[in-house]
Design goal:
6% of the residues lie in helices and 58% in strands. The protein is mainly beta.
C-alpha cells in the first residue's frame, strides 16, 4: 500500500512539473473516470514570540500538502467522487504525515450532492468570509479548525442560494473549538450542523453574499473535565452569521462575521453552581487585490469568553497581511498580528487563563513565507 501511494505521488509530481496552472492537474481522464492531483510546498519564518501564542517551536517551518481528487460517472445523472488530502511537515525533528481531508460521495447534479468522511461540518460555510489570512486570521471564530470524522453532509446550490446540512456520528477525543475545559477535545455523541446562504450578482465592484449557520452538539457527559473532575459537558449550541461584498480575486473586498458557541455543563459536586459558559466573537476584514498580483488585507477581531459567576475575558487583535502572487504557482507573503487590548490581568480578567492556555493573543507576532502550489 505504501509503495503504491509513493508511486502515485512520484507520478503526480512528474506530471505537475510541467503544468502551467496552479489548479489540480488531471493525471487520468478516460471513459468518464478522472484522477486529479494537487498540493503545495511552503516554508514560513516565524517571529521568536510565536511559541507563546501557538506553541510553534521552529523559527523556520517547512511543510507540504498532497491531495488527489477522483470522479467517475455512474450514469447520466449520478457521479461518484472522492478526495484524499494529507499534510506533511518536519516538527521538532520528527517527520509527520497526517490526513487533512478524506471523503467519498455522490453528485446528483441539480439535485445536490452527498458526501461522507472527514471534513468541517456545515457551519464552516457561515464563518468563512473573514478567513482570508494565512497564519494569523480566525482569532475570533470557533469551528474554523473543527475537522470532524464521521460526517455525512448534503449540499444543494442553485439560483445563487446554498443550503448545507451535516450530521456527525459519535466519536471520542474530537477537537471542538471552545471546549477549553477539557483541553479542546471531547467525546461526542452526535452533532447536527446547518447553513444557508445567498450570493447576488455583481453589485458595483462585486457580489454580495449573506450566510447563516447553526450547530448543536451532544457530548458524552460521562467523561469529566481534566481541569475539574466534578464537571462534565452536556451539549453546546453555535450560531453564526456573515456577510461579504466583493471578490478576493481582483479589486476591493469587505467581510464581517459574528459567531457564538454556548456550552452547558453538569456538576456532581454538592452545593456547587454549574459553570456554563459562552464564547462569542466578531471579525471585520477588508482587502484589495491588484491586477499585478499584489494583495493587501487587514481587519479587526474580537473574542469574549463569558463564564457564569466569573469575569468576562476579552481578546482583540488587528491582523495585517501582504501577498504577492508572482505567477499561478508561486507566491510570497508577510503577515503580522497586533494585540489591540487583550485582557491579561494577573488579578482580574485574563483571556489566556479563561481558555486554559489554549489561546493567547496578547503578544505581537509576525511571519513571512513562500509557497509553491501545483
Amino acid at each position: 500500500m505504501k509503495k503504491s501511494f509513493l508511486a502515485l505521488a512520484v507520478a503526480a509530481l512528474a506530471a505537475t512539473s510541467i503544468a502551467s496552472t496552479a489548479s489540480a492537474t488531471t493525471v487520468y481522464d478516460k471513459d468518464g473516470t478522472s484522477l486529479s492531483v494537487f498540493g503545495r510546498v511552503q516554508t514560513v519564518f516565524y517571529s521568536d514570540k510565536t511559541k507563546n501564542v501557538s506553541g510553534e517551536e521552529s523559527t523556520i517551518k517547512a511543510s507540504a500538502r498532497l491531495g488527489v481528487d477522483l470522479r467517475t460517472q455512474i450514469n447520466s445523472g449520478i457521479a461518484a467522487f472522492a478526495r484524499a488530502e494529507w499534510d506533511g511537515a518536519d516538527s521538532d525533528g520528527k517527520d509527520t504525515f497526517e490526513a487533512r481531508y478524506l471523503w467519498v460521495g455522490l453528485d446528483f447534479g441539480q439535485a445536490g450532492s452527498l458526501k461522507v468522511g472527514r471534513f468541517e461540518p456545515a457551519i464552516k460555510y457561515a464563518i468563512s468570509q473573514t478567513d482570508i489570512f494565512d497564519d494569523w486570521g480566525c482569532a475570533a471564530l470557533l469551528g474554523n479548525d473543527d475537522k470532524r470524522e464521521g460526517v455525512v453532509q448534503y449540499q444543494w446550490s442553485g439560483y445563487g442560494f446554498d443550503a448545507i446540512a451535516s450530521y456527525i456520528f459519535a466519536k471520542d477525543g474530537e477537537h471542538i473549538d471552545g471546549a477549553y475545559q477539557t483541553g479542546e477535545t471531547v467525546n461526542m455523541k452526535n452533532t447536527v450542523s446547518l447553513a444557508v446562504g445567498y450570493t447576488s450578482p455583481d453589485v458595483v465592484f462585486g457580489p454580495i453574499a449573506v450566510r447563516a449557520g447553526y450547530e448543536h452538539g451532544n457530548v458524552n457527559d460521562a467523561v469529566p473535565s481534566v481541569f475539574n473532575t466534578n464537571l462534565s459537558y452536556d451539549d453546546y449550541d453555535a450560531l453564526a452569521v456573515g456577510v461579504s461584498w466583493g471578490s478576493l480575486d481582483l479589486g476591493p473586498y469587505v467581510g464581517a462575521v459574528y459567531q457564538q458557541r454556548e456550552f452547558s455543563t453538569t456538576t456532581t459536586a454538592a452545593n456547587t453552581a454549574t459553570p456554563d459558559y459562552k464564547t462569542s466573537g466578531y471579525e471585520f476584514a477588508v482587502g484589495y487585490s491588484f491586477a499585478n498580483g499584489v494583495t493587501a488585507r487587514t481587519g479587526y477581531m474580537s473574542k469574549t469568553v463569558e463564564v457564569d459567576g466569573g469575569d468576562d475575558a476579552d481578546a482583540a487583535v488587528v491582523p495585517v497581511y501582504a501577498n504577492w502572487q508572482i505567477n499561478p504557482q508561486f507566491n510570497v507573503w508577510a503577515e503580522a498580528r497586533f494585540d489591540a487590548g487583550t485582557d491579561d490581568s494577573l488579578t482580574g480578567p485574563n483571556f489566556a487563563a479563561a481558555t486554559k492556555g489554549a489561546e493567547s493573543y496578547n503578544e505581537n507576532v509576525y511571519s513571512a513565507g513562500m509557497r509553491y502550489v501545483f
